[in-house]
Design brief:
By secondary structure, the protein is of the alpha+beta class. It is built from 16 helices and 14 strands.
């Protein structure tokens, strides 16, 4: 892979922290592929609002008009959402004969703004529809074989960079921590910069003093060997762009901790991802009554018509109990538990652990 192409990938990850670089990087991608325009976006809840939105060589009025008048009637969104995430879709796969014939998108909007043939991919994240696409220079133009191959390699990195930017926007940990003079938070914050502690609030310092968790060799570790394996698994997931939660039990004090790890800015060097320049740990010490509210669970079970098994599985997830441990305690196969979880989440209309926790918190408000 050439140095120029590697630089495009590196620039995508650099844009995670400096979002203005996204459009500049998309312009470079357009030039590299011999395309006309590019659009990278993640729609908001219900796909009816713009979440993250970056373009290159596109008229801003085009997107404003599209989202105001066309997005709710765009038949192509269903075609995109049904496509496998990361699959490269060519123009013919993004349209239908009836759509080409009757949709005002093709017969009015696209001609007015010079949108030609499209190549793109479904890069959806956490239930929000994501899109990465480019348009051809000419109305009847096709993309070269090399351009399609390079675009295919870019897709996975564009999706990951957009997801990381979403996490960065949601938590804004660095700005929040450095602007806040209030150290009496209900959760501990530990921020590492290049492996060294850059910031730890008082609650975090108190937790570190207890010795159950500590910072060693540039990352959080746990003194309990069994719990340390969970921490190692979480660090592996973080490198893939996730922000996972893990439950750690201190058997000596019987204290339970919920730990979430954010790795918001990895670096792409010599064809591979390197660890983040800074990593944030958010830690909450849980009281038994905080882990799960039986009243809230009962309301969710009744509202969505969950079975006994489905309700118990959802309770385990909310309490951050590993499914392997839960299945062993119940004496059932882990595959059965996974099926119950999938069935419950389908009934509840959620497709990620993050959305499940958000739904739980909404129901908990009514206690």
């Amino acid at each position: 892979m050439c140095v120029k192409f590697d630089k495009l990938i590196s620039d995508l990850y650099e844009a995670v922290e400096t979002k203005e670089l996204f459009s500049l990087t998309l312009s470079k991608i357009v030039s590299h592929l011999g395309a006309a325009q590019s659009h990278l976006c993640l729609l908001g809840e219900g796909n009816s609002s713009i979440g993250l939105n970056f373009t290159a060589n596109m008229d801003p009025e085009f997107l404003d008009e599209y989202h105001e008048h066309y997005v709710n009637h765009d038949y192509r969104l269903k075609l995109i959402s049904r496509a496998r995430v990361g699959e490269v879709l060519m123009d013919d796969q993004l349209n239908t004969p009836e759509g080409l014939r009757s949709s005002p998108i093709h017969n009015d909007l696209f001609p007015r703004y010079g949108v030609n043939r499209i190549m793109g991919s479904n890069i959806s994240v956490d239930g929000g529809l994501g899109w990465f696409g480019v348009t051809s220079l000419r109305k009847d133009g096709d993309f070269s074989k090399e351009a399609v191959e390079d675009f295919s390699r870019l897709v996975v990195h564009a999706r990951k960079a957009l997801h990381l930017r979403q996490l960065r926007s949601e938590m804004a940990e660095r700005e929040l921590v450095h602007r806040s003079a209030n150290d009496s938070q209900t959760y501990a914050i530990i921020m590492l910069a290049n492996g060294e502690i850059e910031y730890a609030n008082q609650l975090a310092r108190d937790m570190l003093d207890l010795g159950f968790i500590r910072i060693q060799n540039g990352r959080l570790v746990c003194r309990d060997p069994a719990e340390q394996k969970k921490v190692e698994a979480v660090h592996r997931r973080v490198r893939n762009g996730e922000a996972p939660l893990v439950r750690l039990l201190d058997k000596k004090s019987n204290a339970t901790y919920a730990v979430q790890v954010f790795n918001p800015l990895p670096r792409f060097i010599d064809g591979r991802l390197e660890p983040a320049r800074w990593v944030t740990y958010k830690i909450v010490q849980l009281n038994p009554q905080d882990v799960l509210s039986s009243r809230t669970l009962e309301r969710i079970t009744q509202f969505y018509g969950l079975s006994v098994g489905e309700s118990a599985t959802i309770a385990a997830v909310i309490a951050m109990e590993p499914l392997a441990e839960f299945s062993r305690s119940k004496g059932v196969q882990q595959d059965t538990v996974r099926k119950q979880l999938k069935a419950a989440m389908t009934k509840m209309g959620v497709n990620s652990q993050k959305q499940l926790f958000q739904l739980y918190e909404r129901f908990k408000v009514f206690e």
